[in-house]
């Protein structure tokens, strides 16, 4: 699973930005300005957890667009895990079990067969 130490300024909750993993890409702020802020070193962090379907959509977009895969989910909500699996971002989940990893593998396998 690797070292996913959260940035110290992340607000409490399931979504977080990994510390020290930053190219200052600004994608999180672009996709979800209401959910992210910058620290003094231009490293973003989660300032607000999503609480509405629209905010959750924005968070999922930020996860999909962020450089280096540095926005992560450590919760257990199955609907969120499914949503992340649908956009091929299940590897950003700390708690994803084998079912989700298998789902991702089969999607990638089907895609590779279609393109060959
Ligand atoms: S999404 Fe990642 S790479 Fe982009 S600004 Fe935030 S921490 Fe840095």
Characteristic key phrases:
116 residues; alpha+beta; Alpha-Beta Plaits; two-stranded antiparallel ribbon; binds iron/sulfur cluster
Give an overview in words.
With 116 residues, this protein is of the alpha+beta class. The chain is built from four helices and four strands, in the order βαββαβαα. The strands form two sheets. Strands 1-4 form a two-stranded antiparallel ribbon. Strand 2 (36-38) and strand 3 form a beta hairpin. The chain is globular. The mean pLDDT is 89.
CATH class: Alpha Beta
CATH topology: Alpha-Beta Plaits
Question: How much helicity do the residues have?
Answer: 25-40%
CATH architecture: 2-Layer Sandwich
**SS summary, helix count:** 4
Task: State the gist of this model.
The chain is α+β, with helices and mostly antiparallel strands and about 120 residues long. It is about 40% helix and about 10% strand.
How are the SSEs ordered, and which strands pair?
Elements: E1 15-17, H1 27-31, E2 36-38, E3 44-46, H2 53-65, E4 71-73, H3 78-86, H4 98-115
Antiparallel strand pairs: 1-4, 2-3
This protein binds iron/sulfur cluster.
């Amino acid at each position: 699973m690797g070292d996913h130490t959260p940035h110290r300024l992340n607000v409490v909750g399931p979504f977080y930005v990994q510390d020290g993993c930053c190219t200052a890409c600004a994608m999180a702020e672009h996709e979800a300005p209401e959910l992210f802020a910058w620290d003094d070193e231009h490293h973003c962090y989660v300032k607000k957890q999503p609480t509405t379907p629209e905010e959750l959509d924005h968070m999922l977009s930020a996860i999909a667009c962020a450089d280096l895969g540095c926005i992560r989910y450590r919760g257990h909500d199955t609907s969120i895990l499914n949503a992340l699996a649908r956009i091929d971002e299940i590897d950003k989940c700390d708690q994803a079990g084998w079912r989700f990893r298998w789902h991702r593998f089969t999607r990638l396998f089907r895609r590779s067969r279609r393109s060959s």
